[in-house]
Amino acid sequence: MKGPGTAPTRTEADLRAALAEQAQRAPSADDVLSTLRQAGSRPRHQHTWAAPVAAAAAMVLVVGLAVVVSHGLFRTRQPGGPAGLPAAPLRFYVTVDVEITKIVVRSTATGKVVAVVPVTPVLKTGNLVPPALATDGNGTFYVAAFKRGVPEEQIYRFRLTAAGHVTGFARVPGSGLRTGLAADALAASASGSRIAVGAYYYPSHENPGPEQSDQVVVINARTGAQRIWRGGSLAGGYKFFRVASLSWAGDRELAVLGQWCRTADPNPGGEGCDRWKRQAQLRAINPAGPGGNVLGGRLLLRQAPRTFLAQALVSPDGSVITAMVLAGKIIGNPQVSGIFPAHLSVEQVSAATGHPLGVIYRRYLGDTSLISGTESNPLMLIVDSTGSHLIVYGGVCSLHCTTEFNGWLDGERLVPLLPTGFAHREAAEAW
């Protein structure tokens, strides 16, 4: 990997001009926040992950109310789906039901269960720990879960047949996590040779000590060797680290979106500190290294003032960073205070130039007083094995929980994943 370079200087005026068209669509001018530029940041990526990195912006994009995305995607069509819905780009998706009793394969078009993954989640220290799911570039699925009779959480892999049935189910060698740790984020490299885990201490985060922070564990899927990265701390008392999302640039770089909080979240695996006590950064680390500190990785993107950077993923070829950003007022109701800012947007940045590629989708969240499911992170972007299609999941809702959303993006249209409704909430998904 080549050394650092100097990124081009960008000003707020430059960015506002580039985003003029997108800003006109935002709810108000105040909703379009300035993009932060990290002067002198290390270079980002060229058009392939394996190539040396090129100059890139450490930046966060606009706000709005959004959800999901893919640059230049969803152009290949199949015959339309039921009830006039567009045909899904993938036939099946894997999901964990909200009560965490089973992991199933569903038809993307109908929501019908076509297979059950042969691992049943079990109680640990009186708690159900939600399994984590991921796919690699070859279409292999991975699940981190506790299995009856096995004390440590293990990672298993499998594939789907043309009919959606599970085949080749097996444990990844050396994938057992240390006792007391569980995965709340999971990502496999393009070839499946490495698996990254955002691991948290599931018994409790209430007692002071190092277990209040997450760690990133990178597992060599061939040898079972594990390397550990810890979060470190940021100036100003931001010392409690959680992993918000993980994504791979091919096999050679791992992008870690971490959040650093001033106060510990007592919810194991949760992402619960509010935006006034939180900083978030996307850092690239070398997975072949010996481990270390996430903050030692290259800064790719950071949370702007008055925003909440919920998710950030790099594309498999390293050309695009996709970010989910929340901003605006936090709205609740007379009974319960709100949790997240009301305007959500998904935006993309060119990793090679730092130029914004636009706001892809917007959504107004409104009242965010409740989290409807058991997932540790109620706002998720979930990419498929090709890096071309995204699911957007929002498990935040108003007082009566009627505003959750879960679907895939067809252009700027969010197509609901079936079945829908409160009774069919999910704890994790992959496709």
Global geometry: globular
Give average pLDDT, whole number: 77
Largest sheet: 5 strands, mixed
**How many β-strand stretches?**
29
What is the CATH-assigned architecture?
6 Propeller
Query: Roughly what percent helix?
Result: under 10%
The CATH C-level name is Mainly Beta
Distance between the termini: 31 Å
- How large, in whole angstroms, is the Cα Rg? 20 Å
How would you describe the overall organization of this protein?
The protein is built from 2 helices and 29 strands. The chain is mostly beta strands and 431 residues long. The strands form 8 sheets. It has a 5-stranded mixed beta sheet with strand order 10-11-12-13-17, with no helix packed on it. Strands 3-2-1-29 form a 4-stranded antiparallel beta sheet, with no helix packed on it. The chain has a 4-stranded antiparallel beta sheet with strand order 6-7-8-9, with no helix packed on it. The longest helix is centred in the first third of the chain and has 7 residues, at 12-18. It is globular, with a radius of gyration of 20 Å. The two termini are 31 Å apart.
